[in-house]
Design a protein that fits this description.
531 residues; Type 1 dockerin domain; five-stranded antiparallel β-sheet; 7 helices; 16 strands; disordered N terminus; disordered C terminus
Length: 531
């Protein structure tokens, strides 16, 4: 029986066997094409998703999604205090290192030093060995002076002289690293409550985390400087906003604060803000009621960049999460505030006076106002992020090593806790180009907690740890002496052989070309198979 088909105009078509075969072959090719296109789309989607997940979010946390590898876990309980509040800024008076994570992605080095850094300007010191040469024993007379100068008096003194026996006599004895570790670059991180225009009617105190950098292989004139700051936790591009009238630290001022004041009114001496003392004099009286009244209705969610700059200084009272205010314009997660930002998106006047800044804190990063303040009584810091560092602080950890060994101050026994559980701390990212473009070699990193003046080492060190009490003045720090410091106090990360090997994310156009190439090859092979 002959099958009859009606074409689009109603006439009968009687296809022969050949046309049916040709149509079947065409349909097969079309289906094949559809299969390849669907496959390529799926591959591109997966690849794009995987590439995106591989670039860490700079938030102070080595999350699983960031693809970090743990490079070391140390086992020495901290003698610099144990954080216990869980607050992302005011961790509770402790500094510790639990483990170190790292990876290389997109031409950048990413590191997380998991632990805590107390907001008393204790330092996390980081030295990077990424080139041939370098310093195995720090010699301050051959290194840039004035690094973190506001800490240490400025040139000829500075952080590197404090750790490297400066020729001026201000430094202490020289730190020696493990055998095979020759430091080429230096980063130091700190956080605390800075003061702008100290002692003046316009004095402003605020929380800030900051970082400084120095290259160590070009003598005293090597590039160095304070890079920039952040004004909120976890690398957020926000400012902290609040008021001392917020007695219950929930981010707003309402009737509950009045009830607190009413219950404690008349208290003389020893009162805290939680008791209704807004003025900070230890009393609960009419002055505090006046502060409450003038701030009634404040809500951090509706605050502006110009409102209520606030430094959360009481670890037992403040809740830093409730203080997160508006975001700064044009600032991204993990980026630093420096003079370029302040004079650009930050709106500050080009005369460095601090006028017109969108947030008052931005004046802190400006160069000296030579016209009005040549002696820098305003305490400008002239920050310049010339190496494109990114960072984030998260002091919320309460796990990991504890504040004592459990054996009456004997720190020679490994902790009974589990430091491998800690993933939050200080995270930073720096371009490989800023550390000598290492390729096909190992990048070594050592990190340790130091005192506020860069001159008193804790017992918290990367790598194997110390199993010692606080090291004290750097003269006692000879990490190459295995009798006192067994194992390596540094971690190692392999640098890829080429730029392609850095794991850099291809541009979408490049990724599309790769996938289209795969599609073309697949179609060609398919056609050959059908011949």
């Amino acid at each position: 029986m002959t099958r009859t088909f009606l074409n689009s105009k109603g006439f009968r078509d009687v296809p022969n066997q050949t046309s049916i075969s040709q149509r079947s072959e065409g349909e097969m090719k079309m289906n094949s094409m559809k299969w390849y296109v669907a496959s390529v789309v799926a591959i591109m989607s997966v690849a794009t998703c995987n590439f995106a997940l591989a670039v860490p979010t700079i938030d102070g946390n080595a999350s699983v999604a960031d693809g970090y590898a743990s490079l070391s876990v140390q086992t020495t309980n901290t003698q610099f205090g144990d954080a216990d509040t869980g607050d992302a800024i005011n961790g509770g008076g402790g500094s510790e290192i639990n483990q170190v994570f790292g990876k290389i992605e997109g031409g950048r080095l990413y590191i997380v030093v998991a632990g805590n850094l107390e907001t008393n300007f204790n330092k996390l010191e980081v030295f990077i060995d990424s080139e041939t040469g370098g310093q195995n024993t720090l010699d301050g007379s051959t290194l840039p002076a004035g690094v973190d100068g506001f800490c240490c008096g400025g040139a000829p003194d500075g952080a590197l002289q404090r750790m490297g026996g400066g020729a001026d006599g201000l430094g202490l004895e020289k730190i020696t690293f493990d055998s095979g570790f020759d430091a080429d670059y230096y980063l130091t991180f700190t956080n605390g409550f800075e003061t702008l225009r100290p002692g003046l009617p316009s004095e402003l105190q605020f929380y800030a985390a900051s970082a400084a950098f120095a290259e160590l292989n070009n003598g005293p004139t090597g590039a160095s400087g304070t890079l920039g700051m952040q004004l909120a936790q976890r690398g957020l591009p926000n400012v902290l906003r609040g008021t001392t009238a917020d007695f219950d630290t929930d981010g707003n001022v309402d009737g509950s604060e009045f009830l607190t004041w009413q219950r404690n009114s008349g208290a003389l001496g020893g009162a805290s803000r939680a008791n209704g003392d807004a003025s900070g004099d230890g009393n609960v009286d009419g002055a505090d009621l006046g502060i409450w009244g003038s701030n009634f209705g404040f809500n951090v969610a509706n605050s502006s960049l110009a409102d209520f700059p606030f430094a959360p200084q009481s670890a037992g009272i403040d809740n830093s999460e409730a203080l997160i205010g508006p975001a700064l314009p044009g600032l991204s997660q993990g980026n630093l505030l420096d003079r370029t930002y302040a004079l650009g998106a930050g709106g500050c006047n080009a005369d460095n006076s601090g006028a017109d800044c969108v947030a008052a804190e931005l004046e802190f990063v400006l160069p000296i106002d030579v016209a009005n303040d040549p002696m820098n009584a305003f305490s400008h810091r002239d920050m310049n992020n010339f190496v494109d560092l990114q960072m984030a602080f998260d002091n919320s950890n309460t796990a990991g090593v504890t504040g004592d060994s459990g054996l009456a101050g004997n720190y020679s026994d490994p902790t009974l806790e589990d430091p491998s559980l800690v993933t939050t701390g200080i995270e930073f990212s720096i371009p490989l180009s800023a550390i000598g473009n290492p390729s096909g070699t190992n990048i070594r990193i050592t990190a340790f907690v130091n005192g506020a003046g860069h001159d008193y080492l804790s017992n918290q060190v990367s790598g194997a740890g110390t199993l010692q009490e606080n090291i004290g003045p750097p003269g006692f720090a000879d990490f190459s002496d295995n009798a006192f410091f067994p194992g390596d106090q540094f971690v190692t990360l392999a640098a890829p052989l080429s730029a392609l090997g850095t794991g850099s994310v291809p541009e979408p156009s490049s990724l599309a070309l790769i996938c289209l190439g795969a599609l073309a090859c697949g179609l060609t092979n398919r056609q050959r198979a059908n011949r």
